[in-house]
Amino acid sequence: MTTTTRRETEIEAAKDVPTITITREFDAPRELVFRAWTDPELVVQWLGPKASRMRVTHWDCRTGGSWAYVDGRDGDPEYAAFYGSFHEVREPARLVQTFTWAGAPDGVSLETLTLEELPGGRTRSVAVSVVETFEIRDMILSSGMSTGVIEGYEKLDELLGTERS
Amino acid sequence: MTTTTRRETEIEAAKDVPTITITREFDAPRELVFRAWTDPELVVQWLGPKASRMRVTHWDCRTGGSWAYVDGRDGDPEYAAFYGSFHEVREPARLVQTFTWAGAPDGVSLETLTLEELPGGRTRSVAVSVVETFEIRDMILSSGMSTGVIEGYEKLDELLGTERS
Lengths: 165, 165
Known about the structure:
The first copy, chain A, has helices spanning 30-38, 40-46, 134-141, 145-164; strands at 10-13, 19-26, 54-59, 65-73, 76-90, 94-101, 108-118, 122-130. Chain A is of the alpha+beta class. Chain A has one domain (10-157): 2-Layer Sandwich (Alpha-D-Glucose-1,6-Bisphosphate, Chain A, domain 4), CATH 3.30.530.20. The mean pLDDT of chain A is 93.
């Protein structure tokens, strides 16, 4: 039987720069966490809040590639659309993307995910998003983003457990 | 005879956020300035300092596309390589890109160019770059970037004059 350690998701809004840093540990090796971020068949199983019904409409995961997805919730086939670019895919340690919600296309964030190996086949994930202004950063924080992140990472815990076994 | 108004390039490092804002006016209509940023045959004629010998190695200018170029100066066939993604190409008003110098791939900037129409068929160009930390921003500022920007925009003035006539 696998012992699963539940971890806190830490969401930090820096005081001096318009960034959001999300830190979380996972009971799975880095290669597997990286694959869960980059393989679209895995991504749709965990990204976003529990209520989401994510559908990938474009996925070209390579340095210089791009992605798009829609969240089609019950009764609303296209609740929200998102798109962005893969600036760099550096397997298995680093993923740099842009991110936009199609409803506010002037708000673009640059997101850098770093995966660090921990002892015991575990992984620390650090995701830093930066935007141009504190106003945009605060809009993102007040959009309910944290629910999506926390619930998504809980789904990712489950998925990683399944993929390991 | 066309009267050409020389304009100052304003480079501003914000106090409160790690951005660089570059503002410049051009004696050419917005469509033409936008084309000079997006058509690779025009880009190579003006981007970068006067000493540069820019060679585009990849150019896919569309939302979700990407680009790469090298600056091959005299005696040094690959002085520096740069690459990035086109997050959004919104003709003729807005261009959002990522930007990395291959020599320091962990330093990524998100760059938003906005072109505003001015009376008399002129254009104001506002380019905002944001990075994650003030340290990265200050490294960029001390890299001689301003020379490249100012000289590049002078070459762009000449190119726009040629393309208009």
